[in-house]
């Protein structure tokens, strides 16, 4: 049975109510805590998949993009993945040395290099993708199958929206979201100054 958004919200509200009745705040309704728990679980479940891949999970993401229809430049890859340009250079050097990607001149601008997967990179990506799919299923195993699909769609929608709003700069997205929260903490709750 698939849980609807309204049912999920009701469940969260009920948990929060029960926790508050018991005198404590429910951390399990906190978005940051939830994202962190799921992310750490995903990293643990997938660490063996990329154990020998240069760059680990970042190397996988680069390889996945490099096998796509559109060839990205090194600068575009760095911006899209939120990786420092200097770090990106080293990651690409390692992936190139492993024979997984190559830098090819852009026909439109010979000064720019496009990152393209090699045939070995395409083969390796197939194996890596199967490993990541198994890791994802492990992490999402407690959700009903229909909810897994809904979760993936909602997560993708949220991620692409946040990325678009930050013009592809994840650091700006974090700063944009932290600034209002920091302001709220700095000013604190407004209280009446009656004496």
Mean pLDDT: 81
Number of distinct helices: 8
- In N-to-C order, the SSE pattern is HHHEHHEEHHH
Task: Examine the secondary-structure arrangement and name the CATH architecture of the largest domain.
Answer: Orthogonal Bundle
Percent of sequence in beta strands: 5-15%
N- and C-termini, Cα separation: 56 Å
Topology:
Blueprint: H1 5-21, H2 31-46, H3 56-66, E1 72-73, H4 74-81, H5 85-97, E2 101-106, E3 109-117, H6 119-140, H7 145-165, H8 170-187
Antiparallel strand pairs: 1-3, 2-3
Structure description:
The chain is mainly alpha-helical. It has three domains: 7-45, no CATH class; 56-122, Arc Repressor Mutant, subunit A (Orthogonal Bundle); 143-187, no CATH class. Helices cover 65% and strands 9% of the residues. The protein contains eight helices and three strands; from the N terminus they run αααβααββααα. 13% of the residues are buried. The model is unreliable at 180-195 (pLDDT under 50).
In short:
By secondary structure, this protein is mainly α. Helix content is 65%, strand content 9%.
Which descriptors apply to this entry?
single chain; 195 residues; mainly alpha; Arc Repressor Mutant, subunit A; 3 strands; 65% helix; elongated; disordered C terminus
